[in-house]
Amino acid sequence: MVNHQAAELDRVFSALVDPTRRAILARLETEESLSIGALAQPFAIKLPAVMKHLDVLGDAGLITRSKHGRTVNVRLAPAPLREAVDWLARYQRFWEPALDRLAAHAEAKEAEVRAAEAEETGE
Amino acid sequence: MTGFTVVRHIAARPSIVFDALTIADGIASWWGPHALPVVHAEIDARVGGGYRVHFRTLDGRDHQAVGEILEIDPPTRLIMTYRYTLGGEPIEDGRVSLIQIDLAPVDGGVDLTFNHTGLANAESVVSHTNGWTGALDKLVQNFGAGGERQT
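ok -> structure tokens follow
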């Protein structure tokens, strides 16, 4: 189950690597539901390419698609993004205080070295 | 970037900062999320060499992170794998992630860029390291607030 979760997270991060897919998500943030045609319109790529991007986003669980008559509507599914955000937040909580201490440690060393250098040149 | 990135300015010369990253005593002075003494740190600071850091968190848990040095270019760049052999976050479950640290000299100090990515495929991470964070930040602003854990 844990591995399954990690694999999901990998899919989300992989999906987010691509700028077109991020642009699709950004658009879906502002508009609740869009047809595939409307979604594809601003992009300089052909519809099949957009469909492929939607498949990747769908596999990552970042969008849902529903059929209404002859059109397919696409919606944002924010849960996996929250998961990704949680992952980032966890590492932020881990590393930020550590890097604060790294900075304090290096700055103290720098002060020591400078004091030693000043002593050498002063005498 | 495909993970957590933070940039810190440190008012120390690059060689001093790099030593703090690549010498066991240096690592022991800062590693871990809480200001607790590191239990043990060791590093063989060369490409293909390994490191091991045993640390504790305030909840009393023991953790051990290990990894391999993939790239070391003093005093500007360090790339290493990261994996827990003890403790850690349950979601990681022994899988390998990647840490990249770059140092750029600025105003008598350095800007340290720290990136930790969770992608399993380290090569794909290295090849996709641009233009990601800003876009994610925006998504994070919208969806990060009130995000509940799915577990």
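Residues 3-141 of chain B form a domain with the Alpha-D-Glucose-1,6-Bisphosphate; Chain A, domain 4 fold (CATH 3.30.530.20).
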